[in-house]
Amino acid sequence: MPELDLPQRQATDTLMLTGFWYRVLSADRVQRNQLHKVTLLETPLVLGRDRLGKPFALRDSCPHRGMPLNGGKFDGENLECPYHGWQYDVHNGQCQLIPSLTADQHMKIDRIYAGNYACEEQDGFLWVFIPDPGPPGAGFTERTEPREPVPEIAKFSDRYKLAYLQAEMPVSIDHGIIGLMDPAHGPFVHQAWWWRTQKSIHEKKKDFEPIPNGFRMSAHTPSSNSAPYRLLRLYAEADSITTTIDFVLPNIRTETIRAGKYWFSSLTTVTPITRNHCRIDVVAAWNLFRWIPFGPELLKFVFAKFVEQDRRTMEIQAEGLKHNPHLMLIDDADRPAKWYFQLKAAHLEAKRTGGEMKHPMAGPVTLKWRS
Ligand code: FES
Ligand SMILES: [Fe+2]
Fold first, then answer.
1. Which of 102, 142, 315, 321 has the least CB density, counted as fewest CB within 10 Å?
2. Which of 250, 256, 192 minimizes the C-alpha distance to 226?
3. Is 298 helix (H, G, I), strand (E, B) or coil?
């Protein structure tokens, strides 16, 4: 007997997870000796690159009296607060100078730190590690180093193309993420003659399996009712095309398509900016269509269309969400959304108790829906 759950009422929780890497800005926007003011998980940051081009991220707040540092003087190495001129090393935040101290005042200024974050460049983006909130007394502490490396796009050959797309959405991270993994909105939001229409709705069956911190839609042959995939099969002269889609906490969706020697991968993140605002970044790498001059543009066009449709939809949804409606998640189409909330809860519980995270999925599951 198929399980027929009652629709589950669920209030979204806008909690943002700390202890992870987050995408912050596309790398090409950040030049040497320049300062950028950004917000990530409601945290004000100042971002830049030193003289050698190495990126850094500091909390945009002077530990002395809270002055934003983004308006300060930056010499490519140290950043000077515009209020009283305290200077900080941009890479470790350590205080280098307090101009008001007299020669006989021996304050240990090297014990003072501006809030600072691990910051790295990967696949065309700057990423910042947002640690768990520190103990009181921060201002005198060195930063927490991330345990995990920065997420990286899977690549299957030395030569490939890279492109990215970005859209801001006026909804919480949770709505951004469940909107991204929701299979049932496709025929209604993403209609296009070259993709699919409402008439092409049919029953789908997909296998899912648990993976650490997330779940995977197991390798499968993509939807036969979409023209691009039919084209791809022809072009790659491949007997089989397989797609694997993973979601892992806190906000990462990866998709890998392989067709013979050709491949396409993407790493999409939904980044919480504030509680009611998130940003979606799709970064894709591929060796498909390399010899077709308009290939990348075509791909970008298709993707841009999708992302814009999602953005527009969420913008309108945000109007409805203003009135704090109860929400419901149904089986099976909203099961991935339920897993997301359960994963998040399990992660937080494991953190609270210090124990192992209890994965919400006991094993592989097959979901069915029409789309
Ligand atoms: S507030 Fe920054 S030096 Fe005083
Ligand atoms: Fe979508």
1. 102
2. 192
3. helix
Distance of CA 93 to the CA centre of its chain: 25
Please, which residues have CB within 8 angstroms of residue 248's CB and are 6 or more apart in sequence?
211, 212, 213, 214, 254
What predicted TM-score, i.e. pTM, was given to this entire model? 0.89
Please list the alpha-helical segments (H only) found in 222-334: 227-236, 295-321
List pLDDT tens digits, range 265-277: 999 999 999 998 9
Kindly report, residue by residue over 289-319, the tens digit of the pLDDT: 655 555 667 667 777 888 889 999 999 998 9
Whether 65 is in the pocket of ligand 1, judged by its Cβ within 6 Å, is yes
**b/e string for 282-306 if b means 16 or more Cβ within 10 A?**
bbbbbbbbeeeeeebeebbeebeeb
Quote the CA–CA distance of 314 and 337 in Å, as a whole number: 16
Of 61, 345, 255, 177, the closest CA to residue 241 belongs to 255
Distance 162 CA to ligand 1 centre (A): 41
Q: Quick check: CB of 64 below 6 Å from ligand 1? A: yes
Vertex 144: Cα angle to 141 and 149 (nearest 5): 160
CA dihedral 8, 191, 279, 222 (to 10 degrees): 80
How far, in Å, CA of 267 to CA of 122, rounded?
Answer: 11
End-to-end CA distance of the chain: 22
Pocket test for ligand 1, best of 59, 60, 65 (most atoms within 8 A of CB): 65
Is residue 331 within 8 Å of residue 339, measured between CB atoms? no
Q: Is 86 in the pocket of ligand 1 (CB under 6 A)?
A: yes
pLDDT level of residue 12 (50, 70, 90 thresholds)? very low
Centroid of ligand 1 to alpha carbon of 58 (angstroms): 14
Supply 327's token pair: 């929400």
Give the other-Cβ count within 10 Å of 52's Cβ.
8
